[in-house]
Amino acid sequence: MGSSNRYLEIDVAGAPRELGRQLGEAAGEQIRGFCSIAMERVNRTVPITREAALDVARSSISIAERYALDMVDELRGTAEAARVLLEELMLLQVRNQLKPADAGCTSFSIGQPLGCERIVAQNWDADPALDDFTIVLTRRPVGKPAFMTITQAGLIAYIGFNSAGIGICANTLPAPSRRLGVPHYFLLRGIYEASSLNGAIDAVNRGERAIPANIMMTTPQGPANLEVTLDAVQVLTGDGSGLVTHTNHCRHPELVSINELFPELIQSNARQARIDRLLASLSNGDGCDSAEGARQIITSGQSLAKESLASTHEGTVLELQSALRDHDNYPRSICRHINDDQPTGFWQTVFSVIIEPERNQMRITRGTPCSHPYETYRMNSTA
Fold this sequence. Notes:
Elements (H helix, E strand, L loop, with lengths): L7 E7 L1 H11 L1 H15 L7 H18 L1 H14 L3 H9 L11 E5 L8 E8 L7 E8 L5 E6 L6 E4 L4 E5 L12 H9 L4 H9 L7 E7 L2 E7 L4 E4 L6 E4 L21 H11 L1 H7 L11 E2 L2 E2 L2 H4 L3 H12 L23 E9 L4 E6 L8 E4 L5
Parallel strand pairs: 1-4
Antiparallel strand pairs: 2-3, 2-11, 3-14, 4-5, 5-6, 6-7, 7-8, 8-9, 9-10, 12-13, 14-15, 15-16
Helix pairs in contact: 1-4, 2-5, 3-4, 3-5, 4-5, 6-7
């Protein structure tokens, strides 16, 4: 892991091929590094030859082009500037189609009627080797919303928010999958091109999907969680409570039977119960006035007084940070640490992110939130 608490920040703008070229020039080292280790990390959980994996990547190019030709054009520009092959870059997009679920994660979204500014947040529990290739990237495509993501360099999209007020977090959802389909990251990119919850749902629905996924969002219409399978997109909105939480098992009534077919992913049920308990003060009507949110929390070496935090957005953010640092059932906790589980014990919380679209910013830790500060990254209105 790098020594800095902040990730490399890159801002690119233009038509698809130019967006890609700018990214490839600015993050070529990270892209080449990610490409070089991709197969070794895949093989930690499933054996597959490089040639077999590249066959899936090559076959996925035409599938992705049918979904969004401009996204593939952007990847071509990135590949050219970063000096890698297009199929190598596509392998990064499809590597989670080659193996079982490859990340855990605990996520939540809050908003009205809690009286808070809209927030979507998560701990990203995955392979810590990916830290070296992680960047904070702002893209400004012509004629579409600008968006900022925390992502591994070379991916077409990942976790973040757009200028239309949509914020996205992403969890693994164990369910039936297949080798070929529109890569998951392309579906996320489709959501960033939307401006409403319905537009986001349409972006996922129109893709012939290869893997299941959970997408936690904040939207102008409120919090929403999409449980995405090969055949359906089911929406959870918290029944009007203003709070939606999710870990790594199906919660929608139409999908809960799937849980019986798949082993629980890194103690998903325990983490779900814990995050619900930690955030109960919000959904019980205390909202941003929560006394829990106003408690003393040590941040950047300073103790912030209860009185100064009560009834503020910052107080709510501190409460959420505290929940994301939680170590109940350590090391298999919300703030996850390396342990002896097989085959996922090498996963840990690589970063924690709190996304605030109304403020055009994300707060991100580079490493576990229990031992690293939240750094603020802002997307300016112009480059």
